[in-house]
Amino acid sequence: MIRRLAVVVGVVLTVVVLLVGGLWLFQRELVYVPSPGPVPPATTAVARGQDVVLTTADGVPLGAWFVPASGARRDVTVLVANGNAGDRSMRAPLAAALSAQGLDVLLFDYRGFGGNPGSPSEEGLYADARAARDHLVRDRGVPPQRMLYLGESLGSAVVARLATESPVGGMVLRSPSVDLPAVGERIYPYLPVRALLTDRFPVAEPVARAGVPTTVVLGESDSLVPPTQSRAVADAAGAPVVAVPGADHNDAALSHGPAVVDAVVDRAAALG
C-alpha cells in the first residue's frame, strides 16, 4: 500500500514538473501568436494606405502601414499597438474607421509578426513601439502633443511603457490587464505563473506614472481579461471607462467598433 502510494505521488510530481517545465520553456510560444505573413500591400487592405518600413534601434526592419485621414482632417495621428496575435492586416477595419474620422493612423507589426524577422519578447516589443513613435516624430514631423497611443490588449502595456518615456496628447487602452501574470493566473490557476513568466508587461503601474490623459475601453463579457482588471487599470490612470455590454475580448465591437473609435475621437477632440 505504501509502495503504491509512493508510486502515485511520484507520477503526480513528475507530471507537475513536466507541466511547469514546459510552461517555462515554451512560455513565449503561448504568449505570442503571430501570423507568419506575408502581409498584403497596404493599398489592397485599406484605402490610401502606404507601405512603410520601420527600423528599430537594434536594427530590426518592421513592416508598417500609414493610413492618412480621409475625413475632415483633425491633424492628430494615432499610433496603434497590436495585441499578441495576428498582424496589422487584421487591424485594417480599425484604421479605416479612424481615417474616416479625420485621423492619420500608423499600424505596425512587432518583430516575428507579419513576416517580420526576429523573435518577440517584452523588451523587443517596447523597442518596436519606439521605432514606430520615432518614425512619426522624426520622419513625418508629428508633434508629440498631436499624437495618440491606442493599445489593444497586450499592446496596452506596450504604449503604457512608451508613454512613460515619450508622453503624448492622450491614450486609449482597449481591454488592458493589470499585467500579463494576472492573465496567466486565470488561465493556469494551479501553476506558479507569476514566478515563471519572463515577460511581465505591466500596465497599471506605468499608466499611473506616465500621467497621460487616458480612456479605458472594456467588454463587459470579456472572457480573457476580466472587466475588473481593466477597471483597475482605469483607476490607476484616473481614466474614464467605456464599457461595451455583451462584448468579448476579440469581438468586432472591441476591435473596431463605435465605442473604440469614439473614444479615440473624443481624445483627439480634447487636444483642441
Automatic annotation (TrEMBL):
Species, as recorded: Actinomycetospora chibensis
Any matching Pfam family: Hydrolase_4
Q: What is this protein called?
A: Alpha/beta hydrolase
Under InterPro entries, the record lists: AB_hydrolase_fold, Hydrolase_4
User: Where do transmembrane segments lie in this chain?
Assistant: 5-26
Keywords for the protein's UniProt record, in alphabetical order: Hydrolase, Membrane, Transmembrane, Transmembrane helix
The Serine aminopeptidase S33 domain is annotated at: 76-182
Gene3D superfamilies, per database record? alpha/beta hydrolase
Molecular function terms from GO: hydrolase activity
